[in-house]
Amino acid sequence: MVGTRLGQWLILLSCILPFLRTEGSFVGITYLESAVAKGAVCLDGSPPAYHFDKGFGTGINNWLVHFEGGGWCNNVTTCLSRISTRLGSSKLMVKQVAFSGMLSNKQKFNPDFYNWNRIKVRYCDGASFTGDVEAVNPATNLHFRGAKVWLAVIEDLLAKGMRSAENAILSGCSAGGLASILHCDRFRALVPKGAKVKCLADAGYFINAKDVSGANHIETFYSQVVATHDSAKNLPPSCTSKMSPGLCFFPEYVAQQIQTPIFFVNAAYDSWQIKNILAPGVADPHGTWHSCKLDIEKCSPSQLTTMQDFRLQFLRALNVADISSPKGMFIDSCYAHCQTETQETWLRSDSPVLAKTTIAKAVGDWYFDRAPFQKIDCPYPCNPTCHNRIFDPHHDNPGV
Question: CA–CA separation, 124 vs 203, rounded Å?
Fold first, then answer.
């Protein structure tokens, strides 16, 4: 029995150690218990959580705050389904997560940010940290408190040293990338005035496009998210004063007003957007798009034509962001979603490149003002360096 257990441990260590040695490390969870008294809680009322790897050497006063993704919930039913998962309860989050890519503590794999204070904030509110409903329905016990969670986490990090920050980045992936857009200027206002502060949105530029059936599925969905979580009060007033709050959940309607420098990393054929905005299940009842969504190489010529049109819509939506000098972008033509958190797409010998530049170098050059970076890839399938996602058909859970 002991021998068997030892053998299992050795197998586990043989899997973990190469990762630790090469591309990253595992970082333990911190539960923000003090936030509960402020009403800053996950959907189920449990405390917010984050993972914090402290900076060292020259990075001791530099801070990278990265927000996790995970879609959204748009009504009581979908939000209730989250409380039995890590996306609605910190009780169900793993105690350690791997830090790689932009969060890696290895200079070789993350040359510009490896020794910064690196924080991954867990996502458990279902509305990109924008919700704020004071009342809790006793029948559901759902707490819509994402905005309070965001503020409680930032205030806790300020107390833990970010108040002395010299450099700071607010970043995020997917729904966390959207959070980094919506909260960018708010973050700048909370960090010390003397610090260099910029934001980064990875796969967070979701566009308002019709699906293959001609319906505005994502626009309706976002309106329901904003209404359920009462997010309007936490969306940029520059947008909500002009249009319906649901539209202000789309970056294309708020990005132009962002004053803080921001960088957009996004695939023009974002796999999540193709699966959920362009061809969601409700718009494809016969499953015509199923194989294509799992593997872009299995798309028919007509489906590829539709996706090329989606790319053009994405670029038009990005163009309204008023891409001036403080803004940066790395828009590749890969079938991917979130490219800064994984080593293979952030910085490795075979990582995606634009103008012979990796995402890591583009972001680092832009952040430190070494060189601006605003590049848009040629259309699929022109970039041989792409890492195109292939999804497991047995675990195809698009989310929306």
Answer: 18
Burial (CB count within 10 angstroms: exposed 0-12, middle 13-18, buried 19+), residue 378: exposed
Query: 51: which residues sit within 8 A by CB, 6+ positions away?
Result: 27, 28, 29, 30, 96, 97, 99, 119, 120, 122
Note the Cα 225 to chain centre separation in Å: 17
DSSP state of 173: E
Helix (H, G, I), strand (E, B) or coil at 106: coil
Q: Say what the pLDDT of residue 18 is.
A: 39
Q: What is the per-residue pLDDT for 399?
A: 45
Cite the beta strand spans of the chain per DSSP E.
25-31, 49-53, 62-67, 96-99, 117-121, 167-173, 196-202, 262-267, 328-332, 353-354, 357-358, 374-376
239 by Cβ neighbours in 10 Å (0-12 / 13-18 / 19+) ranks as buried
Q: Does the annotation mark 90 as catalytic?
A: no
Give residue for tokens 């790319």: 311
Active site residue 174: yes
Query: Where is average pLDDT lowest: 125-134, 242-251, 325-334?
Result: 325-334
Q: Which of 183, 229, 337, 387 is catalytic?
A: 337
Q: Is 244 a catalytic residue?
A: no
- Which residue among 25, 128, 171, 174 is the active-site one? 174
Between strands 25-31 and 96-99, the pairing is antiparallel
pLDDT digits (tens, 9 = 90+) for 198-223: 999 999 999 999 999 999 999 999 99
pTM for the model stands at 0.93
Catalytic residue among 125, 270, 284, 377: 270
Give residue 7's pLDDT band: very low, low, confident or very high (50, 70, 90). very low
d(Cα 215, Cα 209) in Å, to the nearest integer?
Answer: 9
